[in-house]
Amino acid sequence: MAAAALLLTAGCSSDDGGSPGGGAAAPSSTTGSPPAGQAAEETPPARGTVKVVRTVAEGLNTPWGLAPLPDGDLLVSSRDDATITRVDGKTGKKAELGEVPGVSPAGEGGLMGLALSPDYASDHMIYAYFTSASDNRIVRMLYDEQRPSGEQLGAPDTIFRGIPKGFIHNGGRIAFGPDKMLYAGTGESGDTGRSQDKESLGGKILRLTPEGEPAPGNPFADSPVYTYGHRNVQGLAWDSKQRLFAAEFGQDTWDELNAIKPGDNYGWPEAEGKSDDSKYHNPLAQWGTDDASPSGIAYAEGSVWMAGLKGQRLWRVPLNGTEASADPQAFLEGEYGRLRTVVPAGGDMLWVTTSNTDGRGSPKDGDDRILEVQVS
Hints:
mainly beta; five-stranded antiparallel beta sheet
């Protein structure tokens, strides 16, 4: 895709980021160059490749979160059914662990992000982000494989509550970082004023301990807020140097991929995409909302890989530090419909889920699917 983008008239705000837009924009320069005397990082080739190796599983309903287990199997959440299913990584056979109580699916809300405890080998805890009748919250549940299928989830223990909920913009991605802290992307649930309000949990990236307390070293005293000024964060990933990146939906013009710096303001609603105002952290890449509407992201082979919902494609953003080293490149355009989640599968492999049964897609026989993808 070319780097130039067309600016078109406004569309509605949604899980799809809004409508219209153009191509990917050139990277911004807010994060700067390596300090004097420090060698530039090795960068991947400007152009990459994507090969879908196989369809791992199909027939999934509204898949949202995806968490690989140590043995190579996958846990996948159903946003609308509020269930967690185990998928055999080799055969694709599905077995339901159980339904998560307290989930209240509506619009873009429901059972969303999944993450395994950093101590999963010993505690067997699964973390989940979901919409309840009153808020968005994060819970953890014991996964007991010895119990009968459908009854393997323990009662949810709510570790964090009070994230604003809405019909739109519920965020939902959670991930444990290299520091073993829990990161959560939230949305402003349609109330743009929440994004700039550091007292609100909406339109933020949060950083928590595994018990749900504000993590040590957060930029604002006694606060779980890590960064603010976001619209709807649904992608979180770390590179090989333990740097955090996040994707978020724009409204009418620009979707964003951001390099995350603790305490920074990412601009919404005062800025959408790149801004001339230095108090806002500019994205390292931006897309017209027709071409992206990004949800999950993953890091592999020197690049961030970003799933596009409305864009129906997988974007490759090669990195040099916290900047894009070349124009973003699109793959799988229209081949599998809407793409929701991207998870590293080791080396040059990724897991990618489709999202055609979420009410905004056009499901085909076999939807939704988990794909195994080889990238470079």
